[in-house]
Amino acid sequence: METLDLKGKTVLVTGGTKGIGKAIADELAKAGAQVIVSARTKPNETSHHFIAADLTSASDVDRLSKEIDDTFGGIDILINNVGGLTTPGGGHSTLTDAHWQQELDLNLISAIRLDRILLPKMIEKQSGVIIHISSVAGKQALWNLNLAYAVSKAALNSYSKALATELAGKGVRVLTVAPGATKTAPMVKFLEDYSASAGISPEEGMKQLMAQTGGIPMGRMAEPEEVAQLVHFLVSPSAAYLTGTIYAIDGGSLPVVN
């Protein structure tokens, strides 16, 4: 298991205080990495170095980068996990320009901005890994539920692939992880709200949502720790020849050949 060892590596996990981000931060710390986490607000407790930042703000990204440089001298691994579904469902007619911009800023531009400011030191060292946390929605949009979110994640997928190609000869690997339905607090709340609006139970709401995507063959949502274990492998020396690929972790729900 030495090829999964991350001792001596410094990692930044954005959105690293809860859900998938926290699971990734904890997993990489167990593997020996020095982990930095960022989020808009500080959690009640964290065992990782915390930096408050709103990554939709260019000035906050600049400040985050400066603190990392001043304290750690840079990073070896960047996990762009910040993102989320923040816009209403109902299709194109319910979405304003502000909704589209909000979703793009959170799910795409924040990652582009952070990559751009942290990449020079990785390129200088000829070493580094960037993981973009996307979503299966980027390959299978549900027009009535997540149109703007799905489009922003599809754009992230395309950007990630292009960046991987650009950096492949410079020692920096870029990969995308696309979770399906994952048992996080936001997902549970989304299911509750969706079910309440439809006048059905959360269990029935889950069945209806999954029916739109063909269901989950494995019969359950992913645990955040399962996504974290995939990320751990991808950032480790064991994955040294992997770059430019999107890894869906969805229990087999995507009804396409990747």
TrEMBL record:
GO molecular function: oxidoreductase activity, acting on the CH-OH group of donors, NAD or NADP as acceptor
Lineage top rank: taxon: Bacteria
Xref: InterPro entries: KR_dom, NAD(P)-bd_dom_sf, Sc_DH/Rdtase_CS, SDR_fam
Keyword Oxidoreductase: yes
Residue span(s) of domain Ketoreductase: 9-183
UniProt keyword 4Fe-4S, yes or no: no
Signal peptide location: none
UniProt keyword terms in alphabetical order: Oxidoreductase
Homology family: Belongs to the short-chain dehydrogenases/reductases (SDR) family.
NCBIfam families reported in the protein's UniProt record: PRK06523.1
PANTHER family listed in its UniProt record: 3-OXOACYL-[ACYL-CARRIER-PROTEIN] REDUCTASE, SHORT-CHAIN DEHYDROGENASES/REDUCTASES FAMILY MEMBER
Protein name as annotated: NAD(P)-dependent dehydrogenase (Short-subunit alcohol dehydrogenase family)
Organism: Pedobacter zeae
